[in-house]
């Protein structure tokens, strides 16, 4: 299992600001007060490929630079972020499994107590019926 080189945790706020900036740059949003104007669908589909960031961003917001173009520090940072996210996801899965197992044990005990209780009540009802018939 891969271990982290450092134990720093990335700030989630910083990632959100970076993603907003990327979206802002990608769609070439203007800071002017043209909120009421409509943009043609044709203009939206025409995006210059030179302006697109070649780095990839996964679904959790980690920036993954190209290995051939990245510095060692960037690769270590990306590795640490991915390792911490993997550990967090594993902990979430383990917690979910433990919670579900605990709930299963509680339900099993409840069903067992209900079934044992029903058997006792059935025996008492049978005895009462025999007394009434006899």
UniProtKB/TrEMBL annotation:
Residues 45-56 have a biased composition (Acidic residues). Residues 34-44 have a biased composition (Basic and acidic residues). Residues 34-65 are annotated as: Disordered. GO terms for biological process: budding cell apical bud growth; intracellular sphingolipid homeostasis; positive regulation of macroautophagy; protein targeting to vacuole; retrograde transport, endosome to Golgi; vesicle organization. GO terms for cellular component: cytosol; GARP complex. It holds the Pfam family VPS51_Exo84_N. This is LALA0S10e03928g1_1.
């Amino acid at each position: 299992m891969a271990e982290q080189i450092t134990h720093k945790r990335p700030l989630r706020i910083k990632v959100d600001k970076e993603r907003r900036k990327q979206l802002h740059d990608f769609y070439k949003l203007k800071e002017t007060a043209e909120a009421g104007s409509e943009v043609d669908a044709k203009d939206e589909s025409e995006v210059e490929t030179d302006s697109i960031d070649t780095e990839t961003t996964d679904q959790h917001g980690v920036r993954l630079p190209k290995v051939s173009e990245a510095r060692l520090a960037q690769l270590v940072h990306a590795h640490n972020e991915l390792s911490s996210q993997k550990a967090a996801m594993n902990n979430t899965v383990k917690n979910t499994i433990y919670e579900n197992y605990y709930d299963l044990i509680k339900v099993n005990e409840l069903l067992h107590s209900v079934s044992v209780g029903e058997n006792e009540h059935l025996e008492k009802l049978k005895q009462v019926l025999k007394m009434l018939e006899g």
